[in-house]
Write a structure and sequence with these properties.
The chain is mainly alpha-helical. The chain has helices at 9-20, 27-35, 41-53, 58-68, 89-108, 126-132, 160-165, 174-185, 210-217, 221-236, 280-287, 291-307, 316-327, 333-342, and strands at residues 121-124, 143-146, 249-253, 259-264, 269-270, 276-277. It is globular. The two termini are 17 Å apart.
């Protein structure tokens, strides 16, 4: 239990170590705590760098992404083998490896947090590259691969890992993906649906599209209030299937359980401000116009992860100051972690 007010040096050492290493402080941190030097911003910054350079900081990459991006739910569903026979544990591990390697690169190179939305490279090995239809990659090691427009990748939001955890084992859902995008990437809280509204169950036989079902769902005024925010980012990702593969049409099953083509996918939508996009690329360009919102959300998620405390109204001014400070550094990921550690 921590008292109100400034942390004592040992609490700083403990909080920093569990933040970046997920373990108790080492001898150097404890020694600096004993002498009170951890209160010095320059020494604290040097310790943040030391912890980030150390291989043990991989615990931060894995555990922070598990909570922030909900990757801890990667095994919550198993894709229907009739619809997705290519899915296996090797692909699942490659999905996670891609996201972990990408975040590691963002951290090591202090890349802008805008890379969460889009990037001109991906971190791929042979298995995940084959899943994306990208040729010329061999071996199990992840490496930086330049992206071409026809790959339709770039940014964490198109990683197969997050696309899988935002779908069930049979179908994708613009509602689930839309809520995930709003709450985990853009920092907007969406209230739970009314108790008396039934869930939307997509038709896996392809008779009725999810867009048609949601059009009917939105006719209820209490539903439309939230769906006008949820559905646009959800439909922007609709060209990605349950396991993150690109698709032009839904997969469906015949009456005899055979795989067949379902309806053509329409990923276009209109944002609440009236702006219209045709596909994921159009949606990305709109979101990239507000980099400070992406940065603010990441800072809040990192503060919650580092402290175990929710963001209160009184914290807003300090978060605003951090975001403003990061603007001059192009909202770099490493700079963001330093700013969180220096935050009172």
């Amino acid at each position: 239990v921590e008292d109100n007010g400034a942390l004592d040096p040992y609490s700083i050492a403990s909080r920093l170590s569990y933040f970046l290493w997920n373990r108790m402080p080492d001898a150097q941190l404890l020694s600096l705590a004993k002498t009170g030097k951890l209160r010095d911003p320059a020494i604290l910054s040097a310790q943040v760098e030391r912890l980030l350079i150390d291989a043990r900081s991989e615990a931060f990459i894995h555990n922070f992404s598990a909570q922030w991006l909900n990757l801890k739910e990667i095994d919550f569903t198993t894709p229907d083998q009739r619809l997705y026979p290519e899915y296996d544990d090797v692909l699942k591990n490659a999905m996670l490896g891609e996201t972990h390697s990408f975040l590691r690169t963002m951290l090591d190179d202090n890349l802008s947090l805008a890379h969460i939305i889009d990037s001109d490279f991906a971190m791929l090995n042979e298995r995940i590259a084959r899943h994306y239809g990208i040729e010329g990659i061999s071996g199990t090691q992840f490496r930086r691969v330049p992206l071409k427009p026809e790959y339709r990748r770039g940014g964490i939001i198109t990683h197969a890992s997050v696309l899988k955890v935002t779908a069930n084992g049979t179908t994708s859902s613009p509602v689930i993906r839309g809520v995930w995008m709003l709450e985990r990437i853009l920092g907007h809280r969406i209230p739970p649906p009314p108790d008396d509204v039934p869930a939307v169950e997509p038709d896996i036989r392809g008779a009725i599209s999810i867009r048609d079902q949601l059009d009917k769902h939105r006719s209820t005024e209490s539903c439309n209030v939230c769906h006008v925010k949820i559905d646009p980012p959800g439909f922007a990702l609709e060209n990605y299937d349950v396991i993150g593969g690109w698709r032009e049409r839904y997969r469906a099953l015949t009456d005899k359980g055979k795989l067949t083509d379902g309806p053509v996918i329409d990923a276009s939508y209109e944002l609440p401000n009236g702006h219209v996009f045709e596909d994921i690329e159009g949606f990305k360009s709109m979101i990239l116009d507000q980099p400070e919102q992406i940065a603010r959300n990441l800072i809040e998620k990192a503060l919650v992860y580092a402290t175990g405390a929710s963001i209160e109204f009184a914290d807003r001014r300090e978060i605003d100051a951090i975001v403003n400070e990061l603007a001059s550094e192009n909202y770099g990921f490493r700079s963001a972690i330093h700013a969180v550690a220096q935050s009172s």
